[in-house]
Amino acid sequence: KLLIPQIPVQAHKAIKDIESCTEDSVSFMFLFLGLDISNQPEKERDNRSHNTWMYPCTDYTQMEKDIENAKAFGAPLPMFVASGSAKDSSWDQTHDRNKKTVVVIAQCPWHWVSEWAKLGKKDGKKTPHIKQEFKDKAKETLMSGFRKVFPKLEKYICFYSVGTPITTNDYLGAERGECYGIAPTPGRFTCGSLSPHTPVKNFYMTGQDIIALGLPSALSSGYLTANVAMGYDSWENAILQRDIMDDMGIPPIFT
What we know:
Layout lengths: L7 H14 L6 E9 L15 E3 L5 H10 L9 E4 L1 H4 L3 H4 L4 E9 L6 H4 L3 H6 L1 H22 L7 E7 L1 H8 L13 H4 L24 H16 L5 H6 L3 H5 L7
Antiparallel strand pairs: 1-4, 1-5, 2-3, 3-4
């Protein structure tokens, strides 16, 4: 969109092409918890580091439809629960072993919170109770997932913070709370405008959306765009299996 003033025709065409074959990925609400387990008996401590996913049913397609069509909290939600501190092998050395962090995540369609997205600080002060009621409900909903995974830890909670898709906008620069950019639909993988090439000579695009979702795609996109920018995107180089890292003598990042 920043290119529109310079190349309005080409930029509008590329943006229209992307918008016509893509849609936003999923948005979430978050419950971040800090715990002080100094008084928890050692035999009760739960140091699991794996992720836990909980689903309300096995018909995932219908579940997604029900959530998207429901009013706020009007449908059973899948949840993700994990302890970030337990995943950190150096946590005991760099922090206090009696401190623990846990995050609980659940789907939260954008339309559940969109009414507050455009409120300025002054507007928000006029109806703070409405948004706070939503966040209180979100906390209690997510706490149900926390209790299932860590049934003995609730009394040790000393800090909590609730995040919504609006929070995601603030931290990730999203527009509708989408945590993974463009959704992985068939249309997005056949969209010709989602590539390192742009209508502007020597101006390239990178980022997860030119490949797929998440951090691995973000990293891979930099590698792909660097190859394109340096002229390695030719059939000759593909046949010869040459790329920029080989020629620079850098060990491959993908084996």
